[in-house]
Design brief:
This is 2,3-butanediol dehydrogenase. Keywords: Oxidoreductase. It is globular, with a radius of gyration of 21 Å. The chain has 353 residues and is an alpha/beta fold. Helix content is 29%, strand content 26%.
Length: 353
Amino acid sequence: MKVARWYGQGDIRLEDESMPVPDSGEALIRVLWVGLCGSDLEEFDSGPIVARPGVILGHEIVGEVLEPAADGTGPRKGQAVIVDVVIGCGRCYWCQRHEEGLCPTLEVRGQTRDGGLAQYLTADASRLVVVPSGVPADRAALAEPVSVAVRALRKIGSLLGRSVVIYGGGTIGMLCAQLAQRGGASTVVVVEPGALRRSVIQRWGVVTMWADAEEERKTLLQGLLPVRGADVVVECSGRSGVAREAARVTRRGGSMLLLGVPVGEENMDLLDLMLAEKSVFGSAAHMWDDDVAVAVDLLSSGALDVDSMITHRVPLEDIGHAFRLLQESGEAAIKLLVDCSSAPGPEDEDENA
C-alpha cells in the first residue's frame, strides 16, 4: 500500500509498505479522505513541533470498514466511519474520567502515531463513529475540525443572545461562526484579513471586518457590538499578538476562548483579566463518543455549510503538491482534502483479476 511519511522540514515521501494487520479489537479501514490543516502545514514547514519524524501525518480521517474487528465490536463491513485520533493511556487520572485529551502521555494519530495519509490503517473498532449513508465521504472528512469547534464552544455554555467575536476566518473560525449563529448568538463578527475568506463567511449572514491597525479594528468592532462589548471572544488565528488583542476586546465579565495554536509565548495583561473578571478557556482535543458524534450529526443534518469550505482535492500520489498548495495558496486554500482511495488497492486488484 501507499503511505506518506514525513521526515522533517519540507520532507514528505510517498512509500510502499505492507498492509497493516489488525488486532482482534481493531478494524481494517480503507482510508477515503484526509483533511490537511494548519498544524500539518506547520510541521511540514517548521517541525518537528509536536509530530514525530517518520510518522504518517493526517488526523482528519474518514474511511470505510474493509474488515470488521474479529471480536465482533464496532461497525460492520462497508460502513463509512470517522477514525478516533485522540489516544490516552487508559489508566491515568484523566483517562479514568474520560478526558483522554488531557492524558500526560497522550498520543495523537497523525502526530505521534501513524495517521491517515495512507491507503489503509487499523483502528480501535469500538471508537469508530459511523457516518450515515447519505453523507458524502468528502464532507464527512470535516468531522474532526467540526468536533474541535463543538468541544470548544461547549466550554462557554449557552450563546443565546450573546455577542461573539471570532479572530481568524480559517476552517475552525468558520465553523465556530456557524455554530455560534446556530446557537442563537445575537451578533457574530469574524475578524479576518483575507478578502476571499470574508466573502465565504458573509454568505452565511455573518458579519466580517478587517483593518490593518489594532486600534482601528477595535473602533470598528465597537460599532458592530452592543455597548457592553463582546460577551465571548474566540481566538482561532494563532497569530502573534492576537490573543492579547482578543483579551482587550472581551467585555468586563466576559469570556475568551483560545483555540489558535500559538507560534510562541504571548504577553497578556493579567491585571486587566483579574480586575475585569474575564474568564479564559483553552480547548484542544475532542472525544469520539461525544464531540465527534455530535459533529457527524451536524454534518448529517445539513446544519453546517462545509461544502463551500472545501477548496482543493488532491490524490495521495501528489502529496508533495498538496503541501505546496497550502504553502503557496494562502487564504485561497481553506480546506484541502487528500484522496487516499484514488490509487488501486489489493481488493481492487482482486476484482480485476
